[in-house]
Amino acid sequence: MEKPSSPLGIFDSGVGGLSVLRAIRRELPAEDMVYFADQGHVPYGPRPLEQVRDFSEAITRFLLDRGAKLIVVACNTASAAALHSLRQAFPNVPFVGMEPAVKPAAETTRTGVVGVLATPATFQGALYASVVERFANGVTLLQDTCPGLVQQIEKGELDTPATRQILESALRPMLERGIDTVVLGCTHYPFVIPLIQQIAGPDVRVIDPAPAVARQTARLLEMSGSRRAGPRSGLLRLFTSGEADRLQSLLPRLLGEVADVRAVRWDGLKINLPQG
Ligand code: DGL
């Protein structure tokens, strides 16, 4: 049997980061990966930034304890709340974070009106303000927090009337104001791209940042000389602070593969692995 190598550590508040994991598995098929879903605390979006920062630090420690050589913060909200402080707290660890893809949207919009879907915490963070300041370039950005959408996706409701209703409420007013591009500023949202595209029509471009994040992860590994080459299939393990069975049952649909999932418990601000 193949021996595990130092894995990539990837985390999100829940299943959202699976949209990023999926792209990283494609880009770096030989790498081992450990994914952490903080489903005991999902959603992060309405929480204070300080709290999300505390969760992110504890999860990073947990992933480093599993031997992670690089951490992907596969969550816009956690990146907004914690990326800066994570880099300070763990100066020797390479981090890949996420920010809403305003830059490519502003560069390619023809109508000059772009919709951005993200959580309240992401819109509040300094990272979003800085992205807008650097890249919006006179383009009008229409923002919506899609209340309840993350919870729908956590339940696996990718195409139910309630999910459609949330997206209609967000997108209809934006379409009336002429958007031709939608930026997905939350890693849960790529799972509802088919629905977004149905509502917005085929001419509206939907930007999923996951492939760019996967390429950036590959670049960082190359630069540090720690990229693992094939031929081998990287091992994948998942941990959740929610229910392991529930996450496992969503994997075929959201990730396109199955893998071992273990439940962990928060004990204050520390994550414990139950015995066995
Ligand atoms: N998937 C997350 C993001 O990218 C967080 C969603 C949430 O927990 O509110 O923002």
User: Can you tell me the CATH class of the largest domain?
Assistant: Alpha Beta
Q: Uncertain runs with pLDDT below 50, 5 residues or more?
A: none
Ligands present: D-glutamic acid
Which strands sit side by side, in order, in the main sheet?
4-3-1-2-9-10
Q: Choose one word for the global shape.
A: globular
Number of discrete domains: 2
CATH topology of the largest domain, by name, is Rossmann fold
Structural class, judged by helices and strands? alpha/beta
Structural features, described:
This protein has 276 residues and is an alpha/beta fold. The protein folds into two domains: 8-98 and 211-272, Rossmann fold (3-Layer(aba) Sandwich), CATH 3.40.50.1860; 102-208, 3-Layer(aba) Sandwich (Rossmann fold), CATH 3.40.50. 43% of the residues lie in helices and 17% in strands. Helix 4 runs parallel beside helix 6 (126-135) and helix 8 crosses helix 9. It is globular, with a radius of gyration of 18 Å. The protein starts with 7 loop residues before the first strand and ends with a strand. Bound molecules: D-glutamic acid. D-glutamic acid (DGL) binds next to helix 3. D-glutamic acid is lined by residues 12-13, 16, 42-45, 75-77, 119, 122, 150, 186-188.
Concise synopsis of the structure shown:
This protein is an alpha/beta fold and 276 residues long. The protein folds into 2 domains: 8-98 and 211-272, Rossmann fold (3-Layer(aba) Sandwich), CATH 3.40.50; 102-208, Rossmann fold (3-Layer(aba) Sandwich), CATH 3.40.50. The chain is built from 11 helices and 12 strands.
